[in-house]
Amino acid sequence: MQTFTAGWKFLEGLRWRDGRFWAVDCFGGKVIAVTPQGNAETILAHDTTVSSIGWLPEGELVIVAMHDSQLLKLDASGLQHFADLSSAQRGIPNDMVTDAFGRSYIGTMGFDVQGGAPFAPGAILRVDPDGSVHIAADDLLFPNGMTFLDDGQTLVVAETFGQRLTSFRVESDGGLTDRSIWASFGPPIRDSDLPDFVPAMVFGPDGITANAEGNVWVCDPFGRKATVLGLRLNQSQKATAAARLTAERKFRASLS
């Protein structure tokens, strides 16, 4: 294992597009693209915290501006505001996934973890191509990374404080229905576990993606001593440890 790119403050929202890895430098306010050889280009430098990216059907880049509660759009004319998330949000907007129809699903934290705020559930917001904002799902325990399965018909979200992956059916209008627990790694984090919740974590799912075979890969950034765990989950209800850095513990995933 070797370092691929360095010198950034906090990278999030890794994507692959047009032969390059894309990511946001969250606290640096940047969107970057990196070639497989490690050559990095700054696509956008913004004066606020950014947390995730996606693309609309015509190729426009959309970016979540966390503390501004905005979804921004970058196209040939420049950077512009695309949607105001403040009216519907449940806490700070964070990770996002965008579907083939140009609908952006954005998870909100529910509460300010770093600021010591009391625990509150988050939500998934849906921003339609016209910029309208809707609450697609509520009462989620820190919704984080999201990915699609079944050609976009199923959305899977990592509930970090729920220590689980939750799935929804994506309806033709973009609505989310048929909520179910897709994989469970441990009991939900309780109010009494805050603010020092890390010792209570069995596996806190965060970043997530799916491959062509329908396997879901998810990482845990809260493992002891900066342990990073990768899980490969599939519909045959198996979980495999795919990668582990400075790992000191084992885990078992209970799949629904």
From TrEMBL:
It comes from the Bacteria. Pfam families: SGL. Residues 12-222 form the SMP-30/Gluconolactonase/LRE-like region domain. One of its GO terms (biological process) is L-ascorbic acid biosynthetic process. One of its GO terms (molecular function) is gluconolactonase activity. Belongs to the SMP-30/CGR1 family. PANTHER family: REGUCALCIN (PTHR10907:SF47). This is SMP-30/Gluconolactonase/LRE-like region domain-containing protein.
